[in-house]
Design brief:
With 250 residues, the protein is of the alpha/beta class. It is 32% helix and 14% strand. It has a five-stranded mixed β-sheet. Helix 4 (109-116) packs antiparallel against helix 5 (127-138). It is globular.
Amino acid sequence: MPLLDIVYPVGPGDKNDDLRYSLRSLEKFARPVYRKIVIVGHAPSWIKNVDVIKVPQNRDKWLNARVNIETACGCEKITNDFVLFNDDFILTEPVISWQSIANSYLGTLRERGAEYANLENAGEWKRGFEFNRKLLQQLGIMEPLNFEVHGPIIFNREKRLHLFEREELRKYRQRSDKLLFQRSIYKNLYPDRDPTLIRDPKLLGDRKDLPQYASGFFSVTDNLIGNKEAAPNLNHWLDEHLNFKSSFEK
């Protein structure tokens, strides 16, 4: 298999300890199974040894992220297939192949929507499951899977660009709309073989069973990294496994 690039869409802000530890996890657990790292959007001043594609971050975070991804897809210097990483994704074990960890799902959109339906604090997010299920049904997918995993995903640049050229999706291309689940839409329309059913490794708080909870990676909620009072177990794990300065840090 050819080596793929890792693409991070990154919003404004210079501190970004999530990104710092995410890059450390790549250096420890993913070499040499990627070609290069590309940051699209805003690169913190402490970053080095990565390619940077600057994109003005003058929209809200939802549209910023979508424009960053579209910009990456239009860049011919990025591999045709690339691994999309958010800055809060952290690997926990060696990567053998990206296909094995970047093809995960969380059941169906219908099932996940039913789980969220009665949660008072889920906000607008919970309406997205039914919204995207109906949208995908219009596109011919009768029982769409839920690919809203907080973890890596592989995009093909050409397919991702063509995604929003479809009549049903065109109006969302430049719209800020957090209801639109672009991961689920893409993966249901361009499925890989044999996706793996997992539980979502998003950390909403501290966990003692972090290595067992993670499926080779986890995602952190804002402000947990460095907060040893709120997340002692998480930060102990980071100190034990990722307490070094990576080659991507000045």
